[in-house]
Amino acid sequence: MNIKSAISLITAAAAAPAVVAGPLGYAICQTGCNALVVSCYAGAGFTFGVALPAAPPVIMACNAGLGTCMAACAVVALGQPI
Length: 82
What we know:
Protein name: Cysteine-rich protein
Helix content: 55-70%
Structural class: mainly alpha
Largest sheet: none
Strand content: under 5%
Radius of gyration: 13 Å
Order of helices and strands: HHH
Number of domains: 1
Keywords: Signal
Number of strands: 0
Oligomer: single chain
Distance between the termini: 35 Å
């Protein structure tokens, strides 16, 4: 998977419609976001979770996509009933 398709996938996941599931849905959504960012890092030739002295722009884009995805999870899942 190349970096552009990984970022597109993260963005699409963040914009996907929500399902009512509460905290369990939030946890599942977060796991999906993490899987996408790992793919994004791998597509750029890096390993997610390994500290770098300076983050290249492609990693910053992966991180921004992860933040967007996780924020969307919080908005749609945590305010819903279990």
